[in-house]
Amino acid sequence: MTCIFCKIIKGELPTTKVYEDDEMIVFKDIAPKAPVHVLVVPKIHFASLNEAKEEKEKLLGKLLLKTRDIAKTLGISKSGYKVIINNGAGSGQVVFHLHLHLIGGWKEGAKGYIV
Ligand code: 5GP
Ligand code: ZN
Predict the structure, then answer these.
(1) What is the mean pLDDT of the chain?
(2) Distances (CA, A) of 89 to 33, 47, 68, 72, 84
(3) 99 is catalytic
(4) Which of 20, 79, 97, 109 has the maximum number of C-beta atoms within 10 A of its C-beta?
């Protein structure tokens, strides 16, 4: 069975896209845990960070810097945001295709969600 994020990447499942290029896609989380919650996903399939390959170092760095840029685009850069990677079922990972959660947009004074 093809992974759900690979299906989104192939356009086989609908999603609300925030950004896309040839290496990555960013879309809104279907069950947001914060006022702003998007998923930053490499198009290449790694089940988790554990499986990420050394030769993809440049792509992995790009994911982080694009996440920062997207936080700015979404207007949460100054108010504060979190970037989370769940790694393994024990951490709460449920979709086994590497992704970064970008979450933020809380009201002023809120401390944010988890960690
Ligand atoms: P994980 O717990 O694996 O780190 O996070 C998976 C995330 O993917 C969850 O926050 C969940 O709400 C989201 N998600 C699961 N299925 C879909 C889907 O079909 N579409 C979108 N946009 N998000 C999904
Ligand atoms: Zn996948």
Answers:
(1) 94
(2) 18, 11, 26, 30, 14
(3) yes
(4) 97
